[in-house]
Amino acid sequence: MNRRAIIAGAGIGGLATALALSRARFDVTVYERAEALEEFGAGLQLTPNATRVLSNLGVLESVRAFATSPCAILAIRGSDDVTLMRMPIDDAERRWGAPYIAIHRADLQRLLQEAVRRTSSAKLCFGSTVEDVWGNGDQIFVGVKQGSRTIQDSADLLVGADGLRSRVRERFGFGETDGPAFAGRVAFRATADSAHVDRRWRRPEVCLRLGPHAHLVHYPLRGEAILNLVAVIESPWSGAANDHPWNGEANRPALDRAFSKWSSATRDLLAAAARWRAWPLYFRPSIASFSLGRIALLGDAAHPMVPFLAQGAAQAIEDAGALGRVFSQTESIPDGLVTYSRARIGRAARIQIEAQRQGRIYHLSGPMAFARDAAMRLLGPAGISARYDWLYGV
Ligand SMILES: Cc1cc2nc3c(=O)[nH]c(=O)nc-3n(C[C@H](O)[C@H](O)[C@H](O)COP(=O)(O)OP(=O)(O)OC[C@H]3O[C@@H](n4cnc5c(N)ncnc54)[C@H](O)[C@@H]3O)c2cc1C
Fold first, then answer.
1. What CATH number has the domain bearing residue 311?
2. Counted domains in the chain
3. Residue whose CB lies within 8 A of the most ligand 1 atoms, among 6, 101, 107, 162, for a mutation test
4. Does the CB atom of residue 318 touch ligand 1 within 6 A?
5. For a pLDDT cut of 90, what percent of the chain falls above it?
6. Is residue 279 domain-resident?
7. Would you say residue 260 lies in a domain?
8. Is the pLDDT of residue 244 over 60?
């Protein structure tokens, strides 16, 4: 008989986990508080460490059909458009064993959702908020609010894939005393119709524009139809009043002010997008374990990170792959979760720290920025690629 798993949250982590656990002979129910998957979103880079797992889950080909394959990552000086570094990534499959792709978040979630719906042992319930969790001996119980009624469900395993403000993490603590911490940075996200963008920036390249206290990342999505833009500025606005930390209407003057001294090409790119959304960035310090008895944390619920290594979703997908691997070899849920936590915790913590460091490097000014630019030139494409082997090549 199959084991039973409940997953709280149908984000990228929860959906990938539903696929992974179904393959490991679980009957899976995913409870998602949203009424439907949000259509709004922006681009995601999916690095080889994540696409390798998607391949193992049997969804990479369908994902690739909607993704673009950037051929290089460019670091560009924001003030005058000088290219500081060009790292080829079209050889990612040879170098790291899997492709480097970019995809619209809404496309990825839809494709994962369709794959879950095709899986007979997995069930997806929207409009279902996991409000309470109890038990943790032989069974785990959840109270799920569905409209005006609350139902009870039970399983052998509960996975908290419920994001930054995880209810599952809050309920059991996992040894943590603090909640999410504001990173002092706000990401402004938008997509622009490529027709409004200079031909140079429609090429399949991830461009990273660097300047003092801000940076801008842009790359094409959906073929070349749209350009994804993420501008990150330092700001005290934490969006604290919002329950959901994402998706605030952007303070456009603050964005324009932050980039006012940048090149005209940079300012043209910002002007090409009609509507910006603001995401105050949060992180949480790493915790001692991602598991407690029959409960596992995964993705942003376990290790939220600033997005400067493009690893939040990638790490959620890696977690899913790890859970699937463990439970295809282990019957005992508590033993399997200890193995899962041990396998994941060190790597996730390192990436959390490295992502923060990367953010500081991106925003350097004055002589420090000069030194950074010189170091990038000195390393060259081969040296830069080698610095990512530990991250992409697992
Ligand atoms: C500006 C920016 C750029 C980024 N770029 C990249 C990138 O290029 N590459 C990359 O890999 N990552 C990137 N990320 C990070 C990535 O978006 C997240 O890390 C990833 O989406 C986390 O997925 P998740 O499934 O763990 O959590 P979430 O996406 O937060 O999903 C959690 C789900 O749980 C649901 N939920 C919450 N509480 C409950 C409850 N009590 N009951 C039921 N359901 C519940 C929520 O509605 C949600 O659907 C970026 C992030 C930002 C902010």
1. 3.50.50.60
2. 1
3. 162
4. no
5. 88
6. no
7. no
8. no
Helix-strand-coil split of the chain, %, nearest 5: 40, 30, 35
Q: Which ranges in 57-104 belong to alpha helices (H)?
A: 60-64, 92-96
| Residue 348 pLDDT level (bands cut at 50, 70, 90) | very high
Residue 254 within a domain: no
Of all protein residues, whose CA lies closest to atom 26 belonging to ligand 1? 299
pTM over 0.85: yes
**CB of 248 sitting under 6 A from ligand 1:** no
Q: Give one DSSP letter per residue of 160-192, joined into a string.
A: E---TT-HHHHHH-TT-----EEEEEEEEEEEE
Q: Flag whether pLDDT at 235 surpasses 50.
A: yes
- Class of residue 137 by CB neighbours under 10 A (exposed 0-12, middle 13-18, buried 19+): exposed
pLDDT tens-digit series, residues 175-220: 777 789 999 999 999 999 999 999 999 999 999 999 999 999 999 9
Q: Is there a domain that residue 295 lies in?
A: yes
